[in-house]
Amino acid sequence: MDHFLPSLSPKKRAFLTGTLLLTGTGFLCRILGFFYRIFMSRTIGAEGLGIYNMVHPVFGICFALCAGSIQTALSQYVASNQKKGRAVFHTGLFISLSLSLLLTFLICNASPFIARYLLLEPRCEPYLQIIAISIPFAALHASINGFYYGMQKSHVPAFSQIAEQVIRMSAVFGIVQLMQENGKAITVSLAVYGHLIGEMASAAFPLLCLSAFPPAKTAARHSVDISTFKQSANYALPLLTLALPLMGNRLVLNLLASAEAIWIPNRLTAYGLSSSDAFSIYGVLTGMALPFILFPSAITNSMAVLLLPSVAQAQAAGNRRQISSSISMALRYSLYMGILCTGIFFLYGRELGSSVFQSPSAGSYIRILGWLCPFMYLATTLGSILNGLGKTSSTFIQNVCSLCLRLVFVLLGIPRLGMKAYLWGILVSEIFLAFWHLVTLRRFAPFSWDGTEMLGKPILILFVSVWLNQHLWKIALPFLPQMLTPGASWAFFGTALKILSLCAFYGLFLLFFHIAHSFQAEIA
Q1: pLDDT at 359 over 90
Q2: In this structure, what are the phi and psi dihedrals at residue 216, rounded to the nearest 5 degrees?
Q3: What gap in Å lies between CA 162 and CA 267, rounded to an integer?
């Protein structure tokens, strides 16, 4: 891929190729994940998805404690000290696995208490024990990924995502077939065991790659003796110095997110719904609508993951020009993507919900949540840049305030307005977070901001693309009656083709303006 980018510096080339690789695999994983979610929604139902999404926040809290923070710290520390990468990795892996085993033990023994008094749903108890077993595998996977991200070798983390999805889906499909052949009822345990299998696969693949193909700069083998352990122990303090604030931050954020997940069904019952209806609505929102909104974020998430070590490395080298360039690029492409996705979900949200999940409610939620996209994608990339600059306390405080704002809507709004209050809460909190990140970043790292370029141009291009796309499909409609008939088996493919053609128009116009701008710059 590098020979297509001959004019770029090695650092920019590595960043762009890494982003493209993570984006490509991210999209593939999300496509596979969509088929998996469609299958699960029709197998265990909306209520089952709601119960599973009540259990999953417990895993999120444990991941924040033993894996996510270590991965980020490894990525940042190794990026600045690549020659010491292997010793730093050993230290991080030991810390992460030790914490994960402790958490597994605690959850397995306290699952009745957690289910009844914390999750407020006794039915979650057996699923908590299965979730707990997956935690050490997640810790192993996260540590290896952090090592590879720090070395700016993103291919292993990228392909481990695909391995996880393929193995999980194959195993779950096989389990369902066996259960149906034996006449056994399919319950929420199917989703929980699928999660466990996926985490095991995601740990096994990078571990094999690390053994067979270690990063070139740390490929030298050495015997493991007392001096090796002493050398690794020397990195424990600086690694923990980076990890502990992140650990505390992520723990608080995950606790708030878990409180939100627990209180939504509870507040829906206060609104007047039955427990079954409350879990069904929650399952439709979190298991059907939100995955659509998060699908395009494969691009911004990939950019965010790679921006953190890249910005950290630029800051260590004192290269403020590269930092400013990274910020401007992140702003521009996050807004391009967000504005396009808002248009797509507003126009085709109802069709997607009805054709994919056979749920009109999911379609309505998708259409409303589409307005989140520009702000959500901005917040993701800007937060990653702030973390790369070492401003983790700022991002922590801002994320906490954003989640607290959303919880106000959950606790006070849902009993009066139902799920509409939560949807408004998400939108308000994401707008609040994105703008606060932007203002904070402006203070620490000056960067160029062109409202016409970043907002006016993509909005204008979107309107023109929508107009052209609608006229195109009016002409094509007589030739594709089966695919475009609402309720037909091919309805989703018709909608997908409309979306793809809209994206093509939008992308071509952006490319045209970019080429024209470059040509004018050369003349000047």
Answers
A1: no
A2: -60, -40
A3: 37
- The encoded tokens of residue 464 equal 């023109």
| Alpha helix (H) residue ranges in 83-220 | 85-113, 125-133, 135-150, 155-181, 189-212
Q: In sequence order, what are the residues at sequence separation of 6 or more whose Cβ sits closer than 8 angstroms to the Cβ of residue 497?
A: 480, 483
How far is 188 from 174, CA to CA, in rounded Å?
16
Looking at residue 342, its amino acid is: T
Q: Which two structure tokens, joined as six digits, stand for 474?
A: 């009016």
| Rounded Cα distance, 306 and 311, in Å | 9
pLDDT digits (tens, 9 = 90+) for 250-273: 788 888 888 888 899 989 989 988
- Six token digits for residue 451: 């409202």
Tokens 């039955």 sit on residue: 274
Residue type, 411: L
Chain position carrying tokens 């290269």? 319
Instruction: Name the DSSP letter for residue 186.
Output: P
Question: Average pLDDT, stretch 403-430?
Answer: 93
Split at pLDDT 50, 70, 90, the class of 223 is very low
Sequence-ordered list of residues with C-beta below 8 angstroms from that of 143, at least 6 positions apart, any chain: 67, 70, 71, 74, 89, 92, 93, 96, 97
> Can you tell me the distance from the alpha carbon of 168 to that of 69, in angstroms, rounded to the nearest whole number?
25
Quote the pLDDT of residue 479.
Answer: 64
pLDDT digits (tens, 9 = 90+) for 278-292: 888 988 888 888 888
Distance CA 244, CA 240 (A): 5
For the cut 80, the answer to whether the pLDDT of residue 347 exceeds it is yes
471-486 exposure pattern, b = at least 16 Cβ within 10 A, e = fewer: eebeeeeeeeeebbee
Q: What's the 3-state SS for 20-34?
A: HHHHHHHHHHHHHHH
Confidence of residue 407 (pLDDT cuts 50, 70, 90): very high
CB 483 within 8 Å of CB 497: yes
For residues 257 and 148, give the distance between their C-alpha atoms in angstroms, rounded to a whole number: 28
- How many C-beta atoms surround the C-beta of residue 412 within 10 A? 13
pTM for this predicted structure: 0.75
Residue 59 C-alpha from the chain's centroid: 15
Helix 69-80 × helix 135-150 angle, to 10°: 20
User: What one-character-per-residue DSSP string does 418-431 give?
Assistant: THHHHHHHHHHHHH
What pLDDT does residue 357 have?
77
Q: Residues 190, 192, 195, 201: what is their CA dihedral angle, to the nearest 10 degrees?
A: -70
CA–CA dist 336, 431 (Å, integer): 16
In angstroms, the CA 83 to CA 176 distance is 48
Residue 136 has pLDDT above 60, yes or no: yes
Q: Is 274 exposed, middle or buried (0-12, 13-18, 19+ CB in 10 A)?
A: exposed
Residue 143 burial by CB count (10 A; 0-12/13-18/19+): exposed, middle or buried? buried
- What is the rounded CA–CA span in Å between residue 64 and residue 99? 11
